[in-house]
From TrEMBL:
<comment type="similarity">
    <text>Belongs to the UDP-glycosyltransferase family.</text>
</comment>
<dbReference type="InterPro" id="IPR002213">
    <property type="entry name" value="UDP_glucos_trans"/>
</dbReference>
<keyword id="KW-0808">Transferase</keyword>
<dbReference type="InterPro" id="IPR050271">
    <property type="entry name" value="UDP-glycosyltransferase"/>
</dbReference>
<keyword id="KW-1133">Transmembrane helix</keyword>
<feature type="transmembrane region" description="Helical">
    <location>
        <begin position="224"/>
        <end position="243"/>
    </location>
</feature>
<dbReference type="InterPro" id="IPR035595">
    <property type="entry name" value="UDP_glycos_trans_CS"/>
</dbReference>
<dbReference type="Pfam" id="PF00201">
    <property type="entry name" value="UDPGT"/>
</dbReference>
<keyword id="KW-0328">Glycosyltransferase</keyword>
<dbReference type="GO" id="GO:0015020">
    <property type="term" value="F:glucuronosyltransferase activity"/>
</dbReference>
<dbReference type="GO" id="GO:0016020">
    <property type="term" value="C:membrane"/>
</dbReference>
<keyword id="KW-0472">Membrane</keyword>
<feature type="transmembrane region" description="Helical">
    <location>
        <begin position="255"/>
        <end position="272"/>
    </location>
</feature>
<protein>
    <recommendedName>
        <fullName>UDP-glucuronosyltransferase</fullName>
        <ecNumber>2.4.1.17</ecNumber>
    </recommendedName>
</protein>
<keyword id="KW-0812">Transmembrane</keyword>
Amino acid sequence: MPNVVYIGGFQCKPPKPLPEHLEEFVQSSGEHGVIIMSLGTFVSELPDDMANEIAAAFAKLPQKVIWRYKGKRPSTLGNNTLVVGWMPQNDLLGHPKIKLFVAHGGTNGVQEAIFHGVPVVGLPLFFDQFDNLLRLQERGAAKILSITTVDKDDNFLKAIQEVLREPSYRENMQRLSRLHRDQPVKPMDKALFWIEFVMRHKGAAHLKAQSYNMSWFSYHSVDVVLFLTAAVLLVFLTSFMFIRTISCLLGKRMKLALCCSALLVLVLSTSFCHGGNILVFPAEGSHWINMDILLQALHSRGHSLTVLRSSKSWYIKEHASHYKSFTVPVERSMDKKLITKFISEFIQYQRGALPIANFLHMSLGMIGKLKEAHEPVGNL
């Protein structure tokens, strides 16, 4: 359908010069290069034993390491590791001395790694992260580690060494990078064109599917469903009447054989399918980081932008140079500390260190907080 335009990787761009202190650290790595690690917006700390194991593994490597981490400083941290609260991820990935990216598999990080051709060691936690990393692993550009075994039997160190020493990982990722870049139109330019196209043509009604003009009765094929249901019932009723008539004329053994045959035919003629429902909604964190890049590009082309935001928003600023905001008042919001605690307990649960009852209690609490955070105050 023409209603979907693929703009994956639109936020990726050539790297900017690094801040002076980071550039000095990167250059000090010599021929060994640098590893960077980030587990996303919300994973700012890890269980102490896991953090210590990761730090100890880094300390055994000849490479320098830049680790985005806000938790307790690991006691096993080596002199080759720089712990930072924030880092210019895209600019680092585009630096020629970066050899490896340790990531959680979020969409931003995966797309930036592909764009710059940096292989990945993945530690997926939830949502789409495992699927993103699995796609890279199947193409020989990444290696996935389970969060449950990352601190056992030197698994983390072995995974890093494998990706660093086996040239196929980098070669495969650079091949993906070439494929991604080899497009007639850049993803950002494509996004800008289609947004402006829809505005120029007053909603581009000519691109909308005919389903927009159909009644709910026709759209959901109620008449077709009723007809098929009646046809199936007629087949069953006819089969039942046929078997009942024949059974009166034949013995019990023949009756059983006919019943089994009829049942087998019905089972084999039945189609099975598996479907899923997908809900997409605006969220904080990395989702807004991507959107803000697109808004800046639209603003630079002279467009006036208005952003709907929560009064308790963490990332979406009320005042910005490139957009106006409409703030929806809410009484409550998701607490960052609560989310950090939930993620920490989720990791412990996956590793078998937290009883399922505790985790379920925490999950129900999070669902309640999420519901409260999206309840506006008064009428809009």
